[in-house]
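lol ok so funny story. i was supposed to be doing the assay writeup but got distracted and ended up predicting the structure for this chain instead. priorities right. anyway since i did it might as well share w the group, maybe its usefull for someone
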Amino acid sequence: MTTDMALLSVSPTAFLAGPESALRQLFRVTIDNPGEAAAAELAAQTGSILVRADLGRVPSGETTHDLFLDAVDRPGETEVVLLVEGAPAGRVVVARRPPRKWRVHLVQRSHHDVGYTNLPSAVLREHDIFLETAIELAEATAGYPEESQFRVVVEQAWSIAHFLRHAPPERAERLLALVRSGHVELTALFGNLVTELCGPETLARALYHSRQIARRAGVPIVSAEHNDVPGMSWGLAQVLADAGIRIFCAGLPRYWNWCQPAMQSFWDDAALFPGGQPGGFWWEAPSGARVLLWDDAGAGGDVRPALPGLADRLQALEEKGYLYEAVRWPVRGGARDNSPYVGGYSQTAREWNARWTYPRLIVSTNARFYADVSRELPEDLPVFRGELPGQDYPTGSASTAEATAVNRENHARLLSSERLAAAAAEATDYAYQDADLSQAYEDVLWYDEHTWGHHFPCGPSSRASELEKCVHAHRAAALAHDVTSKALARIADHVRLPGDGLHLVVFNPLPQPRTGPVSTPMREIDNCGSTMAPVSPADDSGGGGYLRGVPLTDRWHTNTPSELLDGAFDLVDLDTGQPLPFQIHLLDAEEPAPYAPQRAGLGLGGRRYGMMEPPQGIGRDLRFLARDVPACGYKTYQLVPRPGAVHVSSPHTGGGR
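and the output, tada:
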């Protein structure tokens, strides 16, 4: 009998079955049968070993059949012959090489993109729900084989920190128990930051939240993630390396590859990853310390728990020259940023591993992947120094230019606030405002986080998201001002003065003496946090005593007497006893100065303050040159009344004494 049946192809797959000592590799055999169904078999010859596989009756058309062959341990060839009713009908010679024993680490995460998919405040609550689900899924799969038990990497620390603050103690402890067991991995960074906007202290503070949680759980932090942000400053390498972070998983979006035609990406993939991607290299910090930067060629990941096409994609990795048998395979709970955690990957891994020896699916974490792949890292793994300048996010911060400017100042302002608070706590009875400083730094981090509004940048949702973003910058500024005001007030109140009268204390927080200009309102701007202080019966006209709100721990801000506001005084340096030149600057509402309209308006006075003196001095600045202020010290000046002295300068023309 003759047949036109043809053997089209014999293709190796990544699938290996059987015990480790006798692995068999699955091949896909494609046959074309233009005629009627006919009985056929395959004969595969590898060296002296012949394997025959009965295909039964091959139907009409093009069909695919499984062929299992013993895995080889060295390169070679296998001849596969199609036999139809005992007669050869086709022949293919297959080049063989030892198959990869793939270990696929399924790393599930939810991309933390606060504000992009909903209002930021709503996204925070969503992630609380996601972590509740993670607790339930981990407990539901506790009886699964170890490699298929539910695990998740919490991409950024802000969601765990928020959950632990707001969850009932029992739920918080259950999550911490999963962190301890490795089923929930805590990563190093607070958020996906636009690191080019951050100052050095901000980058260091980006690890504070995770460190606090790690100490509470008693675990090390192995990995950091940086996703959806196509750029990173070199300082980040230093911070991560100094903190002992082993692997930095950077899911960098390839926006340019999405163009038609594709454009050159932000770095040279071929130079960085000679073995193809995924891949890694050592990112060396300015100090010479290193962290393994691992890139998966994008910021996404599989969203279908059944993992269709996984074996074919592994085969493609091998053909591209991927260096390792361990592979990090990012997955998500759905095709959306801020997606929930799902248990389907555990179910897939359990069923898959029951059938196949390799590829081995491991429901995993970054830490588990690093422990595996680090054994395969070559000694000549490339080393790169420097930074990857960001493109869109640093530029995009100009869309909220005022808040960005405020937050840039916060980076420096908070350092001064912290120094002043430490000095005041050491030298006086001031209570160090740790909670306020921590909240201020967290707000700075929230503003430097990469999400700049809603995914659709137009309309009520976009505007509300933008405003929620901006409030972080302004709240951090308010808290920094509060800490500074209270710390300076306590320092000033503990300075020994030679007598009564109005005095001004100029403090220098720097570690070296300083000469420089001073410009201060003649009435301070109120800080945000007032407290309640008792008024004794002796000071109460009614004789009963009561509680009074005070902004500066135990007193109100000092009002410069109205008779001095126009400069009718001598400004005397108490170290020398000599008067200094000075200027009183009357603020104009249209000046390009912070809070100029409000200060100018309040400086006009008014009756709404009741029994308190109107803060007219807030509309005027006292300006002079302070000479030789000691390192981390102060100088004291006295405003000595002198009727008939030169009055206030014009806001436009200048003047003064």
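The chain has a mean pLDDT of 92. The chain is about 30% helix and 25% strand.
back to the writeup now i swear
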